[in-house]
Amino acid sequence: MLCLAFKLSFFFLLCSLFLPASGAALTAKTPATPVVRWDEGSPGCTFSRSADGRYQYGMWSDNVGVILAVDSQELEKVRRRHELFFSVALTVRYRGASALDVNPGTITLEFVKHFKVVQTSLDPDGFSQKVQNDADEFDHQIAREVQKHPEEKETKQATMRSFQKDAAELLEFLSKNTLKTAHLDSGNREAVGWVLFSTESKWISGWKKQEEFVLRVPLDGKVFEFPFKLPPKQGELLLRQRE
Known about the structure:
Helix content is 34%, strand content 31%. By secondary structure, the protein is an alpha+beta fold.
């Protein structure tokens, strides 16, 4: 018994010596990634309204520049789309002597007024497959409805053609206009394209008159952070100039 008691005492002594150090190691935080935040009026930060109806936010940090462009009518467009997504246009510029990798898959968008939900950017290839699958399913659905109600054939097929046209245009857009993974250097200074975020979430619904977002773009060991509102001023209406 005495031997057992001694062993237990020795065990607890070892625990008291080593557990605090182990606990400290487990709770130690990984150094946070530096954040470069857009702020109107700060050095390197710009804001403008373009003739094509976009709000543009620009920011430079060291050798990296990022321009965020948002359609002033984006909220209205989201409501009308068959596929639910929010889109922004990004331009990344590099003026350094080394290189910079751009990975759209790491970009996120926070929907501030919708429980601060954060959505990662949609993969263009995966999203394209979803668009095609949805278009095929809609086609089959219309065929079934026409079979049940042949008198509605003309109306149903017109709806189907409109849906298929929208799907084809979206597929072409995803193929040609989305931001691609890029390696920027002295021979390739710029990457341009659209980044899309899904709004299919139970937490994202009922758009407010003025929405707030935070776009985060990891680049060059930092996070370029763009807080923006749509519209920037309550009730503002930005119209496109006619060509």
